[in-house]
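Severity: low
Component: inverse-folding endpoint
Summary: output formatting inconsistent between runs
Steps to reproduce: submit the following structure tokens with default settings.
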């Protein structure tokens, strides 16, 4: 399978690249700084470019079967500015499947069911800026024709893969407080072959 990974120099993105290559897939990454990718592998194609540039997205998406976006907010509007370009390129090329890494803030609130977690007292985050960016992505994907899944981890420390965790559609698993980068990436990668959460958010936590 030909997989495009966006955000490959980040914590989750880097782990996704590793899982992709371990599975003998062909992995393409679009990165601003290729030097940050230390892996040498014949199944890895590194394209220098920017997810905010339409031509770069179109170039990277050529021949791709599935897109996984681990782009993060970085205090900017990168997420909300890049997603329309990604959706447009995918729809124009007939590529259907996209998996993105979101945040638990955009899951439904258990306390206030008509609100998202970041909009309710359920969230412990003082800042809602990142969640608002991810909310924009959620809305854009809902309006698209794509087969999307948003994997929504809670607190995301580094750590070893455990391989045992809880997942729940549209909600953060009850009393979930953390999930490692490695396990988040593992679950997100597993969604390539799963139809369980098509056009859905899925919360993940231990």
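Observed output (run 2 of 3):
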């Amino acid at each position: 399978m030909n997989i495009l990974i966006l955000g490959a120099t980040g914590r989750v993105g880097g782990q996704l690249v590793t899982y992709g290559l371990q599975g003998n897939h062909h992995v393409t990454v679009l990165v601003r700084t290729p030097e940050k990718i230390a892996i040498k592998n014949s199944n890895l194609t590194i394209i220098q470019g920017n997810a905010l540039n339409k031509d770069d997205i179109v170039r990277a998406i050529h021949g791709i079967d599935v897109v996984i976006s681990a782009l993060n907010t970085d205090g900017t509007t990168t997420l909300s500015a890049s997603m329309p370009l990604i959706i447009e390129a995918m729809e124009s090329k007939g590529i259907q499947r996209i998996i993105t890494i979101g945040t638990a803030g955009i899951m439904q609130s258990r306390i206030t069911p008509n609100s998202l977690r970041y909009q309710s007292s359920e969230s412990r985050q003082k800042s809602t800026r990142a969640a608002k960016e991810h909310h924009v992505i959620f809305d854009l994907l809902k309006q698209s024709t794509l087969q999307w899944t948003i994997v929504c981890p809670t607190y995301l420390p580094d750590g070893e893969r455990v391989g045992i965790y809880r997942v729940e559609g549209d909600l953060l698993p009850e009393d979930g407080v953390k999930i490692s980068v490695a396990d988040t990436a593992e679950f997100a990668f597993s969604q390539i072959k799963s139809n369980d959460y098509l056009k859905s958010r899925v919360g993940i936590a231990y």
